[in-house]
Amino acid sequence: MYFVRHSIRDTRIKEDESAPLTELGKQYAMQMSEFFQYKNIQHILSSPYKRTIDTIKPTAELLNLNIKEIEPFKERIIGEWVENFDEFSLRQWSQTDYKLPNGESLEDVRNRIVPSYQKVLSQYEGDLIITGHGTALAVLFNELTESFTYEDWKNMKMPDIYQLDYDHQNNISFKKVEMNF
């Protein structure tokens, strides 16, 4: 199983769900498809956000696979535009129940994404790709490894690939795939 964090987002667009990739982000998405070209990928699942779909679309086209949108893989809802994102994120990681009005805490994200991931494990067989967002994936990785931290989240790139090998829903190994973007 591969997890892909979306490529570079165009931050000029404040609407989270419709924010596209930058031109460089699109180039990285094309380069990333080459990594998956000879993998035995059978399913591609993604957050419904435009930047995640656009990140994995070149891979889906290359492999002739459909992209199944999974709503719970969406990004954490912040609630309002945050000027100091690093400060906000550090507070969320140190107080996992902290959230802004109309936003989600990291606990809220965990309660949404973990059951959805478990459902994926029970519904899909074979190698697959899940495309999502930094915070949502980091919360899932923290749950799966019990060691993925705030610092690991900060070091995630756009795009980024992680590989999880498992046997009957038991994790065997988890690693970051090094790519030269």
From TrEMBL:
CDD domains listed in its UniProt record: HP_PGM_like
Gene3D superfamilies in the cross-refs: Phosphoglycerate mutase-like (3.40.50.1240)
GO MF, any single term: phosphatase activity
GO CC aspect terms: cytoplasm
Protein name: Histidine phosphatase family protein
Lineage: Bacteria, Bacillati, Bacillota, Bacilli, Bacillales
